[in-house]
Amino acid sequence: MQRQATVAPHDQAALHTGVPAPADPELLAALAGLELGPRLRTDAASLAAFGSDALTAFHQRPAAVVLAESAEEVAAVVRVCHRLGVPFVARGSGTSLSGGSLPVAGGVVIALNRMNRVLSVDPDTRIAVVQPGVINLDVTKAASGHGLAYAPDPSSQSVCTIGGNLAFNSGGAHCLKWGMTSNHVLGMTVVLPDGELAHLGGTSTEPVGPDWTGMFCGSEGLFGIAVEVTLRLVAVPEATSTALAVYSSLRAAGDAVARVVAAGMLPVAMEIMDALAMEAAEASVKPGYPAGAALLIVELEGEREEVDVDAARLRDLLEASGATEVSVTEDTAERALVWKGRKSAFSAVGWLAPDYIVQDGVVPRTRLGEALERIGEMAEAAGIRVANVFHAGDGNLHPLILFDGRDERAFERAEELAGDILALCVELGGSITGEHGVGVEKLKYLPLMFSEDDVALMHRLRDAVDPAQIANRGKMLLTESAPPQPAIP
User: Fold this and answer.
1) Does domain 239-427 bear CATH number 3.50.50.60?
2) pTM of the model
3) Per-residue confidence band for 481, with pLDDT thresholds at 50, 70 and 90
4) Which CATH number fits domain 118-235: 3.20.20.140, 3.30.465.10, 3.60.20.10, 3.40.50.150?
């Protein structure tokens, strides 16, 4: 079975020395008093099932799991945790690739999957109100009858939930034009770390006063739990055109991205896959990609006349950028297969290697070609295969570093390369994360980007909301009293 690993914030020995924290009888008694019935889980099998997220190199056992069904239940559980000083973690589908929903030893996991209703869709104001456990793609399904859609589309959109998208400010292939989750969240009801229910934002796209929703988006659970979210919807475009351009090198494909943007065009999406990523996709979902060293996918959408003009201009730009082959389709089935291949790339590399590290750095578009070339050189020097697939439009790299976990040294070398790639991103003027978040994965890399004063300010903000540091303790920011949780073998 494939095991997805990633950069750890602590040494390898620590990954295998953790032991389950004993359950606090007072905590279990207080939770039992909430009369949750079978939705309070403390048996070993249930705790093990929630012991990890998509960052499966890390495991930890909570004291209890609560399968919440309402905002009031979430608030009641959080109040218990606050009174007893017990950490809690909110969890949706567990698709976090940075350990964001990894349990805290002795803490409580509040599972939100049962809070999965689309409460309303208003086609006139283009607003949807949803619970946090709603699957991302289900928002679009609920709005499609009105000619509307929810724009953010992470690769895991068929399984990831809105609550997790909000916590990590997820993006997706089409974020170049439509932006990240924070650009589509208008308001929310949240449970603060002391159990208080608070309402942030509203229904307006131009709110007055502090942007509390903007602060909450991307806070990785440190400010509490969203229990209801008001989302902005967008109109389904009249026409959509998808172009595939083949290049002889990754650098050429990266330089083409900068050329398209410099020409004043704003595609809805620009994605790049290298030969190894395409090989994996072909082995998995067989999208029928053309052969080459790199594939650039560019999608346009809008009014019919606008798309026709831009598609012709885009073809000229791609051919002038050195593409060896350019094809264009508006066929719905063909386009769906193109995106199925791209969005399955992470899991598809399991056909090429038993284990992999998925990284998530960002570089400026103008240096994308340089970054890809240097990553190739670094991979060759390390003797490690790397499949590159990423959101080229905003420079969000997702190199997939392949290795065989049966060889402990192979994992260490893969980790080292992953860290070097993050350092390269910062060196080129980018970031250590684009959408996967810091979680536990990138804690030790914060100093690459931020000064001590910057990090101190982050701690002050967190402590102002949660002085006991019980909300998702040990994630995003180091906590002296609770270091990152080691794995339990």
Assistant:
1) no
2) 0.90
3) very low
4) 3.30.465.10
